[in-house]
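FIELD: query
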Amino acid sequence: MNIKVINHGKRVILRLRGYLDGSSAWEVIRKVNSYRDKEITLDFSEIRDIHSFGWHTLKSRIRKRVILQGIDFKILREL
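FIELD: result
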């Protein structure tokens, strides 16, 4: 998992790249938590595969204010 941080003042975009599994989900969670005072967008447009455990871990631990974008719903249907 590669996380590129794009900082726009009060808004931060975390562009995710690669594969989302359990350990990379925790990496994303820690990164999101390091920007508690910012509006966070997780950009999934470069995620190629999602492991169900990673998806459920991420969804259960991120703040409700975090925006998810660029999700390939074909990948999610397989979960």
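FIELD: remark
The two ends are 19 Å apart (CA to CA).
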